[in-house]
Amino acid sequence: MKINFNFKRFGALMFLLFIQTAFAQGITVTGIVTDKTGMPVPGANIVLKGTKESTQTNFDGEFTINAREGQTLVISYLGMKSVEVSASKSVKVKLEDASNELEAVLVVGYGTQTKKNLTDNIARVTAKDIQQVPVSNFQNALVGKLAGVQVTQTNGKVEGGMNIRVRGAASISAGTQPLYVLDGIPLINDDDDSSNGAATNPLLTLSTNEIESIDVLKDASSAAIYGARGANGVVLITTKKGKEGKGNFSINISQGVSEATHKKKWLDSKQYVELLQEAGRNVDDLESVEDELEFLSQGTDWRNGAINTDWQKEALKTGYTTDADFSLSGGDEKTKYFFSGAYNNTVGIVDSNSLERITARSNLSHKVSDRFTAGMNLSFSRSAIDRVQDDNSFVTPLQSVAQAPISPARLADGTANPNTEYANYLLAKDNSFWKTIMRRVIGKVYGELKLFKSLKFNSDFSYDLLTQTEDYWQGKNAPFMATDGAVFASAQNSESYVFSNYFTYDQTFAEKHNLNVVAGMEFNKYNRRYQDVNSIYFPNDSFETIDGGAEVNEGHGSQTDYAFVSQFGRLNYSFQGKYLFKASIRRDGSSRFGKNERFGVFPALSAGWVMSQENFLKENKVLTYLKLKASWGKLGNAEIGNFASRQLYQPNPYNLKSGLTFDQAGNDNLSWEKSTQTDFGIEIGFLDRISFEADYYQKDTDGLLFEVPLPLSSGTDLINKNIGKIRSNGFEFTLNTKNVDTENFKWNTSFNITTNESKVKSLPNNNTDIINNFTINRVGENISSFYLVEYAGVDPANGDALFVKNVVNDDGTIDRSTTNDYSKAKRIIAGNPFPTLMSGLTNTILYKGIDFTFTFQGEWGASIYNTAGIYQSTVADYFDNQTADQLNRWQNPGDITDVPQARFGGANGTQDSTRYLDESDFIRLRNITLGYTLPKQTVSDMGMSSLRIYATAVNLLTFTNYKGYDPEARRDDGVGIGEDFYSAPPARTIALGVNINF
């Protein structure tokens, strides 16, 4: 049979069939990407797997892309877990946070690295961990969040300094604070030329609203890239950047109220008079006691309690906080921008202490071409602080608790009472002010050039300018004023610029070998200038500036600088994602070091084995991740002063003639303190819901900086030398769990615990003890251990204070008998000023639109010495008001108590001893936040993309047996370690706020 076949018709039919099939399979995918709370995620990347086709979500989280049914879409966003979904006409994707997951990208210094490829020990907090916490400095928001990092606020003043120790103390006499790096800029953090007596905190100039993340480099492998400045750890602060997509405008406003976390109980007028009279009778001096009581009462009926002044209530007030900030961010494929501004007004809990700060930031980047990107970061801040004197000053508010409650705070006409036992701080409040203004400009311009596909070159120029002015005015009625008024004015300018250039090579070979290499150089120049002037004899109190005085009687000035020049390199290698290796080296040279030790080399090595990638564990459904890691490296501490190695002379004028005096012996071999650190760790994941990290670390610091005595014939009595060793070691544990993970209800927990022990291994002069007022550095003991006579309570027969002798007997044993003669008792090591155990627990609960977060923080093993105890807890040894526990004094033979008999001027147990040493263990509800995000449709009708209202609190509850104001409060005058001296407790703050996004 003959068949006629028309090829033209068949071809046309097949072509139509192909076109029809193609159109049937090709679809336009529309979708929306949100986070776990339902908020849109702008700027998320959508890639058609296996192709180069991609797009990004707009401001509302929406996207459109052409695909074929069955193809796979890969949706990703920085800081969130990537998701793969099948292409369909309508797609809804919910991304989950990956801040604690292996996909998280961490900043490691001159680059970034994913956590799964990390062999270092780096702790991180992100913006969501610190935002909307009502504190005046970002450091306070880190408390309890990071294993191995202790954050302590000095006291409750608004400008109070912060002490941050990473894995314990790494020095005795040099600096102990970490290096802070903001967007690659090493920040000025150790400058304080305040004449107030208490240091200001330079990092107070930063606002939390501009921070994207904070990464703390804890081990040598991570910190060695910063060489001579990394021994105390490195804190890398990354500010927020713009993202591609529709612009986002955010406003946050909150208002809070503050009060002291704790107040002591003091004697009222009746109790005070009764105790003083008893103390006077016990030494047959009642008449002189009552004469003074008559004076202190200012003619009022002190016998019947006519005046009962609560001086603590005068000193500690209700504080207020106002926070308002905004940000605008967005961009397109070429240009990305982020602008922000913030305002903080904090009225402190300490009378006459307040802070007003404004900050602004602009971050811009522009893709000039496919190979070149340029950008600029610029920030400005101004912090105006109304200050009170340091803790060791009679006119600081907290020392007013020493005043007699029978003394009126003010007279009938409202003026401050000038006839109190000590200077009435209200006279200073009414007739003086101390204003400090800190201004800061931080800028960076940078360029990134892609030389080849795998090689790029970065060049950064950074500048940090910190200025501080002080104006201290005292009117003619101010305390201790003898010159009809005085004005002190000072100005400090510190500036640092950094020029960095480095190459980055990143390449994968044969889909198995990944190599990342960074190599570059850096130059850092710093200088500071300080000047002050004092003027006296003012015509009246209307003149409050230098030019109003008749005589400019004093002035000072100084200038200092230093420079660092560095070369650095780092290599990261991974094989099949399971065998990891890293090596880094930095060579630092600094003008701070002696001319024979100008340069130092700081190497580091680390390795990791991802065992869960091995065949015998790869398919395990329970043990989903397992990594072993170890690191070793050498670091330095260059915080030894700018001229510690130099031979110095100082001006010494006489009879209006100038002259020079030999001041410091030079040491050409003086160098940085050297720290060798070792770290062993394990990371474990279970069921993709539980992650656990454990690390053991050891830090050995050698070449401690000490002032070594010289013969008087040398012309000076001391020389700086590198002598001495200390060791810090301990364990760190971090546990993260997803307790509940459903669409409407999520509950995550993060728990960390750290142990630390820092001991002296060797000291100069054949390991001779170094003794300060109340502390000692002794080989084999904790750094700066408390060294005190041991208090033994009270002799029940006569009320004498007793002390343990602790002398060595002839047979070598210790005589533990007691004596009432303080001079016969020997000092012992009685406590540790640093905690040996620290912990933090954070829970985050999300239920539909409700979010609830709280953090507990705890510290154990430390002690605090109350240096003011010899005045305020002495059973009326003098006219200072006494703590309420002194009512439990010995009065009759047979009384069992630890408070001696009241003896006015009798020094019965008032000597420095363990009587005033107390354990400072505590658990604190550090912060708690409850928020509610309104439904999207509701706020959309109001023209918003989201609206969240929240309530938050800081230091809400504290559980402690510490008898003082607060287990974290320390004196702020730079004297002593671990001491409390009329130190204000931190504030308990409760705030309400609203966050709006457009």
TrEMBL record:
Belongs to the TonB-dependent receptor family. It is found in: Cell outer membrane. Residues 115-234 form the TonB-dependent receptor plug domain. Its main location: membrane. GO terms for cellular component: cell outer membrane. Transmembrane segments: none annotated. It comes from Flavobacterium reichenbachii. Keywords: Cell outer membrane, Membrane, Receptor, Signal, TonB box, Transmembrane, Transmembrane beta strand, Transport. It is a multi-pass membrane protein. This is Membrane receptor RagA. Residues 1-24 form the signal peptide. The lineage of its organism: Bacteria, Pseudomonadati, Bacteroidota, Flavobacteriia, Flavobacteriales. Residues 454-767 form the TonB-dependent receptor-like beta-barrel domain.
